[in-house]
């Protein structure tokens, strides 16, 4: 018996003889196979299909000296199918890339929404557990702030500086009434408004509002830009998937794909060089996208690499409540001075007895919010973003290599096999093979390419614009230096070496690095008056309180009121 190798060699030789020999005969003797394939391809019978070969004098593209099995109507139908095949091939070739971008864009947005909800939850828990008297009134301020954060991230025309200022403006009257000047009393709306307006002049929270602005601006803007850029990437692919096929390209595709059928050569494939000329001509306009697409992916990579440390949105959002706590603490410690300043600006309040509102935070939510399992250090937002960029980098030359990819993967005959050259079955294609891009098509023997494509030009303009945005939105931590206001006295400098492992916390009493382990407890309600001692050592921060004895080991960080560090597991 013949072994497998001998059988394959024999079968290949027989196939070559059949294909190559049929072209050297007088032509196909019957059109039955052509009819069957045509009817199957077009999903239905078509009247007027020839039973036997005939002269093809009426054909416009599939012209041959030999008798043909095609009519003018068949040629027209084949022309339509060739265009459809082209679009289908483009969509198939881009499907992996499109799925990669769209899946990660959706996951990124979903993760940001989750981070916002978690950060809002942390801030609400801060007020309910530590500043319970003002928690109810603070709830609307907290909710409005995080609503604005979400609106900004997802493209709304809101200003981070404005909503950060609005948050601290609204917070100051609450801190003043319940901590600095406490009592079961109520001040008038006019007096509270005066305190709110005075906040920016007397700076009760020191430089913390400016720090929040800096961190929010440098973390929210890159994330917002990244989302916009990913959505543009999807738009680019959707547009090129449905690119208009020019008249010249349509005729070339018909000649390459379906004209062999007219001669009964249903199994033939185009020669590699012939296929490259046709596809490079048809996709010449699209190839012009290649340098801009390459720069687009490189800019995404640079932006992603720069989003780390205190400028990682995950770090900033999940530590926001600690900065709020620091702000309230600073205002309380300077309470006497602030009270004198407020009295000078707004006068003494007219007080009326009332019942202090209590926190209405859902206890089940609190427990749910605090029972957060430690996350895998490898599954952070930054690590998943890096994984995405590494995958996307494989598609940097997608548009420049698309024509070659279509021919090599599917359309063209393998090297060494007889192939279709546009007129007949030959051993090899003898015409020169042109390169990619519009300029290279001047010598293309198969497709005439003229001018430019306005749709492609529009896409290029959009890519250029988003590249500028990406390159201009990379956070530069080494250039960020904030001076403390009059309430403090320290200088905060964040160096360019800050990363996810460094911590970068500069709040003096609470901002922690994002990868600290989660403690498994939450202190009971603590009032500032309960604090007896805050003792800081190199490796420990210990709090002795009358309300709840709590000791937490940290990494050279000082906790004030929040005894637990809460970390959201990586979700994206």
Which terms would index this structure?
mainly alpha, three-stranded antiparallel sheet, rod-shaped, disordered N terminus, disordered C terminus, heparan sulfate, Glypican-5 isoform X1
Low-confidence sequence ranges: 1-26, 363-378, 475-572
**Strand order of the main beta sheet, please?**
7-8-9
Note the total helix count. 19
Mean pLDDT: 75
Order of H and E elements: HHHHHEHHHHHHHHHHEHHHEEHEEEEE
Q: What distance lies between the first and last C-alpha atoms, to the nearest angstrom?
A: 58 Å
Category by helix and strand content: mainly alpha
Quaternary structure classification: single chain
Coarse morphology: rod-shaped
Helical content band = 40-55%
Total E-strand runs: 9
Q: What is the alpha-carbon Rg in Å?
A: 35 Å
InterPro entries: Glypican, Glypican_CS
Keywords: Cell membrane, Glycoprotein, GPI-anchor, Heparan sulfate, Lipoprotein, Membrane, Proteoglycan, Signal
Membrane topology: Lipid-anchor; GPI-anchor
Main location: membrane
Question: What can you see in these coordinates?
Answer:
- This protein has about 575 residues and is mainly alpha-helical.
- The chain has helices at about 5-25, 30-40, 70-130, 130-155, 160-180, 190-200, 210-240, 245-255, 260, 270-280, 285, 290-305, 315-320, 320-335, 335-345, 365-370, 380-395, 400-410, 455-470; strands at about 185, 350-355, 420, 425, 480-485, 490-495, 530-535, 540-545, 550-555.
- It has a domain at about 80-350 and about 385-440.
- The two termini are about 60 Å apart.
- It has 19 helices and nine strands.
